[in-house]
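dumping this here before i forget
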Amino acid sequence: MIKKLREQKQWSQEQLATVAGLSARTIQRLESGNKASLESLKALASVFEVDIEILTKEITVIDKESQSWQVQPRWYKSLMWGVSERKPLAIIEYISVAAGAITWILQPNLFAAPALFLCAYLISKLIHRTEQQKFW
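structure:
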């Protein structure tokens, strides 16, 4: 998001750093997907004249137009279809664990509890892979 905003203004990383009062290295780190401090986000939001919430949300959203996303395997992109943020996947993971635990306690002989735990595990692996690829 930061790179797109910077390119829209046709600025170099050094120019953005100067205008925002940040170091060029900070801009490089943010554009490569590293986390931003609140102070850096405030400075960038001010420079780009956008709400800070938009920047923080966009930093944690998958950019499905990026080159790194385009080269991902079809199975992965199909699993992530309709998913752009980490939060919904994490919620499904937690619900699966809770439902699996409740099912196991109430009716331990059912197939549902292991299936729910497996679902939670697979979602956690999907989240982990997405984090490793630095998509959010």
